[in-house]
Amino acid sequence: MPSSVVTSSSVPVQRLSASNRVQDVKEELASSSEAPDGKSVKSEEGDIHDRFFWTYTEEPHMTRRKAIIKAHPEVLKLCGPEPLTLPLVVAVVTLQIACAYLLRDTPFLSWKTFLTAYVIGATANQNLFLAIHEISHNLCFKSPMGNRLLAIYANLPIGIPYSASFRPYHLTHHKSLGVDGLDTDLPTALEAWFFDSLAGKAFFCTFQIFFYALRPMMVYKLPLTSIHALNIAVQLVFDYLLIRFAGVRALGYLILSSFLAGSLHPCAGHFIAEHYVFAQHSRSLQAGASDKLSAPPPETFSYYGLLNFFTYNVGLHNEHHDFPAIPWTRLWKLKEIASEFYDDLPCHYSWTGVIWQFILDKEVGMWCRVKRKEGGRKVGFGDAETTQHRQPIVGVTG
């Protein structure tokens, strides 16, 4: 196991806050940080080729959410739709269609097309990726159908229909964080083994948009619904009309923008920053150690830098996983209200730095993820499954 993947038996938590409730959260995490036989779990079924961090712990966000609500019940007032998302989506969709039209006569293999796609297009399409992420939590309209339709609209400049499939896979990621076979954000053991080198990690970071698009379907398949059919039909009609009136180069610009948005682009750093365990996180924990308390490694990491401006504050990822029902405009307020729960958590300071450290640091790689075998639920598998997922979970939308 790489040294950056920290075992529950060796990682002390940060110094205890003055808040008793924060201490209670840490004690609850620590009490569940060992396997039933009292030993930490380093690999599933003792497989020496499996170097993920396997844990028996409950995912940490539910525990912290309950503690925050107990300490600050007013945070529940932050939950609910954010209407500002709608005009922003319309503006970015319009921007991308305008750029595609203006480049209709520009050769696809030209610096003008590439630089426009990298600087403007990739940033805009990453913004739309994360608008769809926000909308998947029903955080623009009160109406679920309104959110589904807006997601399909936001999908247009991306060029490939995916918004209908993204939602159930993403909500399962929230309800099944780290659960092998359910959380499709987790790399498979084959991926981690095959790309376990500098060249392999560079390849993964360059083409990671394909991994995030194809991996979920390899883990499990979703049933086709009317929303999926509508998403596909609307996207095909849009792509056809774009080619008909602006030419194939216009569509090529949009697809290139989507590729670059999930490649070696600063905003793409969030894909890695959110859940991979880096060496400095273990060092920050050890620096503030308590001799009496140990906890499993953190599984989610926030970023509080300027790129949040372009990405619906997705960098506030601990805050988002704790309260998925709080929209992007109010996550900073959540952090302010419950600061004692967040200020000591390890975080990232640069998404660009995350990408390069992930590639160059031998102690960081695709094995550096926390996994668990049990827990979680799938979203999007018929009425019975939908009913199960609509059981009230405070602060969570599905």
TrEMBL record:
Listed pathway(s): Lipid metabolism; sphingolipid metabolism
Stored SMART domains: Lipid_DES (SM01269)
Keywords assigned by UniProt, alphabetized: Lipid metabolism, Membrane, Oxidoreductase, Sphingolipid metabolism, Transmembrane, Transmembrane helix
Pfam families assigned to the protein according to its UniProt record, in alphabetical order: FA_desaturase, Lipid_DES
First-tier enzyme category under EC: oxidoreductase
The EC number(s) this enzyme carries: 1.14.19.17
Gene Ontology terms: cellular component: membrane
Sequence intervals crossing the membrane: none
InterPro entries to which the protein is assigned, alphabetical: DES1/DES2, FA_desaturase_dom, Sphingolipid_d4-desaturase_N
Chain segments annotated as coiled-coil in the UniProt record: none
Region (Disordered): 1-44
Localization terms from the record: Membrane
Record field: compositional bias (Low complexity): 1-13
Catalytic activity of the protein: an N-acylsphinganine + 2 Fe(II)-[cytochrome b5] + O2 + 2 H(+) = an N-acylsphing-4-enine + 2 Fe(III)-[cytochrome b5] + 2 H2O
UniProt membrane topology term: Multi-pass membrane protein
GO biological process: ceramide biosynthetic process
Highest taxon of source: Eukaryota
GO function terms (MF aspect): sphingolipid delta-4 desaturase activity
Domain Sphingolipid delta4-desaturase N-terminal stretches: 47-85
Function, as annotated: Delta(4)-fatty-acid desaturase which introduces a double bond at the 4-position in the long-chain base (LCB) of ceramides.
Family of this protein: Belongs to the fatty acid desaturase type 1 family. DEGS subfamily.
Protein name per UniProt: Sphingolipid delta(4)-desaturase
